[in-house]
Amino acid sequence: MKRLSALFGLCLSLLAPMASATTFTFTAIPDEDESALRSRFDKVAAYLETQLGVEVKYVPVKSYSAAVTAFRNNQVQLAWFGGLSGVQARRLVPGSEAIAQGYEDQFFKSFLIAHHSTGLAKGDGFPAIEGYTFTFGSKDSTSGRLMPQFYVEQHLGKKPEDLFKRVGFSGDHSRTIAQVEAGVYQVGAVNYKVWESAVAQGKVDTSKVSVIWESPEYPDYQWTARAGLDASFGAGFKDKLTKALLEMKDPDLLASFPRQSFVPATNQDYEPVETVAKAIGLLD
User: Known SUPFAM superfamilies for this protein (predicted)?
Assistant: First the structure.
């Protein structure tokens, strides 16, 4: 009997570290340079650890599609997605939910920017950009590809490949700004938040590149939680996570996004994004 008790105690001691080692992981679409993302989301991980009482780890990825794949494969249980990548992820993992968005993400915008050599300037109407070289951000970016392409097609009546001398995909908004500023591409589409932040930090030479058009507003970034969180981390975990995100108040942390606060979000908020993606052939 003593041997059985000792064996049982040994089993418990082996299992205990495994249970306590359960880590909550999250990722984010790589919409800016890696160092900026690492600085921001390592801080988020530290904040969530204090609120959730479990180990939290930020897992960087190299592309928007890699963020969606990590979410689908349960390599991460939470992601800071753009509008389109969030829709893609939730379609792949039924039961997943958009739980929070930045206050500004309810009214997001894209900018078209142009190299000074084009002579293009901001006016009342849509700019005459046909025939120039043009770069989007990531192929799966809402603000750097989906919405700009939709409005380009709506205003000019042609697909990008039929409008522009050359079409590129920079990979992220920071690269789009750098490529247009350097004249690698004459015109580009960029997230307005990344543009405004880069200008405020003195990272953009506005004598070489400037905004020539801004889009109507649309819903964009959001925190999406993977289905099954309560089963994996305990009853009430998803609600606890949602509360932690909505109560993120640290000014430095919010400024790194940059967002003034986080507000509730639902899957239904992103139906306009899904509709546009279907309209231009990015979703079936």
Answer: Periplasmic binding protein-like II
